[in-house]
Structures are given as structure tokens and as C-alpha cells.
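Researcher: Next entry: DUF4345 domain-containing protein (Croceitalea dokdonensis DOKDO 023).
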Amino acid sequence: MNWIFKNAHLLISLAIVVPTAIIYGSPSILPQHLDIQVNTKDLSNMLKAIMCLYLGICLVWVLGIWKTEYWKNATQLNIVFMLSLATGRALSMVTDGLPTGGYIFGILAECIIGLLSIYQLKRYGAERG
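Model: Predicted structure:
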């Protein structure tokens, strides 16, 4: 049971980020979930690069769950990832206005998971093995 609590932030992140990455990288299903039309090859290329970046970060989280020696690095990456996305969304909301509901959920989830990850790092960061 302690394993689940210790890895909760990484498991939650995986459950959200993997499907998001796949949606971002799939121009045919992207408009069904977000108000984005992929009309150029450059936008498609950018979104697939973001998809692979997200999946690569998820790989680090999986390593952190699977191998305890990677847990701290995975948690630190989770903090940077989530809070950087939340900061970018907040900046966009100030400069560009409010986005659709999916992105409003995103900033809330990113802030909560980022703060949970900080808590997890403080609580479990000193553990070995």
C-alpha cells in the first residue's frame, strides 16, 4: 500500500499525460477533444514532437515507479513538467484570454499534481530502496 501512496503522483501523471500525448499527436482526433484544427504540416510536426516529448517524460516516470533509484529524479521532473505547463497556461490566460474547458482543467490538474509532487518529494525523498 505504501508503494501506491509513494508513486501516486507519478501514476496520476501517467494516466493523464499518456492519453494527452496521443491526442496531441493524432490530428484526426485532436479536434474532437480540443478546439484545434491541424491545417499545416508544420503544426502536425510540432504536435508530434510534443507527443514524443510527453511520452519520453512518461518513460522517466515509469522508470521512477519501477526502479527506486530513479524515483527522486522522476519526481523532480514531474514537478518541473507540471508547474512549467501550469505557468505557461497562466501566462497565456493573462495575455490571450481564457481557453476551452479542457485547458482550464489542465492548469488546475497541473498545479495540483505539481504541488502533490513537491509534497511527495519532501515526504519520501530521503527514503532509500
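Model: Note for the record: Helices lie at 2-24, 30-33, 41-66, 71-96, 101-124.
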